[in-house]
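Q: Give me the 3D complex with zinc ion.
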Amino acid sequence: MGWAPATSTNYSVRLPDDAAPEYCAITSSGVDKAEIEVEHILAVDQQGRALDGNGLTPSAETPLHLLLYRRMGAGAVLHTHSLSAALLSQLARDEGRIVLSGWELLKGLNGIESHETEVSLPIFPNSQDMQALSLRVGQSFSTEQCCYGFLLAGHGLYVWGKDLPEAKRHLEVFEYLLQCQREATFHGHPATTR
Ligand SMILES: [Zn+2]
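A: Here is the predicted complex, encoded as structure tokens.
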């Protein structure tokens, strides 16, 4: 889909409690996701330390995945670098969010039953300090009303779900709607549809 250019993006699933100290399985840093094999996925503990990595390094963005498991009860976390996510998050950076409303496909998000609703995708400034970034994102969860995903400005999209199928569905919803917004922006409309 063009959502994972070069070696960008990362994906993880929460492991069952009885797998402790293994906490989640996450993709390795620096792998082209078009060529990914099962040996490029490694288990990490609750602090993000590799447990069976065979020399692989967990994704640099592991702290954000761990945050979503801890704070949002996620079962799977998917992070893409699509053109729409990178571009719109950069354009709407000062507004701090992209609001999606009136779209039928919003109903693909868990708990949403009508297009007549508003879903907000918060935008955080990008950073290479993942610990600081995850702290900042975590602080916002107490004030964000209904959070299904977020954007990192000029970087990409994070979504999650109770399990991998739900996370994939949420990802496809957001990518599609961001593409709608991108087209609208191209025709001179704002990047957000409030
Ligand atoms: Zn990224």
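A quick observation: The beta strands are 10-14, 24-27, 41-44, 76-80, 97-101, 118-124, 149-152, 156-161.
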